[in-house]
Amino acid sequence: xxxxxxxxxxxxxxxxxxxxxxxxxxxxVLGAVIAGILEEFLPQQAITKFLPKQVVPAVMIGAVLGLxxxxxxxxxxVVMRRLLRKGLPLSCCIAYMLAGxxxxxxxxxxxxxxxxxxxxxxxxVGLRVGLGFVVACLTALIxxxxxxxxxxxxxxxxxxxxxxxxxxxxxxxxxxxxKKPFGRRLANISATSMxxxxxxxxxxxxxxxxxxxxxxxxxxxxxxxxxxDQPYLAIPAMMLLSFLMCLCSEADAFVAASFTxxxxxxxxxxxxxxxxxxxxxxxxxxxxxxxxxxxxxxASVVTFVFLLSIVVHLVYQANGWAGVPN
Length: 326
Prior knowledge:
15 helices, about 325 residues, single chain
């Protein structure tokens, strides 16, 4: 930053800010449209009928819902909010929100493609999906414990399930739902999608401003130089970088692959944390979750990603595996 002139700094800021918006906006739109369709066509409590009664299996199913509703982290929040309002348990929603941007076909394929030329595609895909699944499930179980204690006080008004937030005032509506014409349904989908889009875009824009500012002070080359000889420093350094860079989960693998001298454990920390927690997501979470829940999610995700990445590094070290592409 000190080597840049004010004009260069402003130019760089605008480029990075617009890049984040340009990258995220299509997925925000897609997520809003899917959310509108779910709101209009998905019957109340429909998904919960197929979930196991036990919390752990239900959370595990929630973590792989990304294979059914594939979204990156930029658009998944609005979809998750609609599923929550439709009766999907909070723990399952959290598992889907955290794991969905990782455990979906598009992200799996992009991760494989990014590391295919490095000879570590299989292990990077396996580690990313595996650690993402474990972190999402563990965090969701902690949230479940919080929910048993605090209930819907963890949620904002716009996220409280409909059955608990909207009283039934018309008995006929609860007994025999009226069939709506297609035009009316299309109008409802459009209205819901527009509401969610505007609602979330404000926080996305604020997050993009903070991320673009952070990028003026931190370069990827400095992180690699700082941590190449300090493997245990590389993991938190890459976690911090993923939090600040606000990359889309469908493209972040190519950035991680560019750190050619970085250990696998640090790369997987970058690839798991980023889709779960970054600046823009923290701001977007405030529209759905209360502060207590946001802090619970953030602390759990950071702790589990760090510890599991350390375990990965120790396993590689114990088996004499290099962990760095040739």
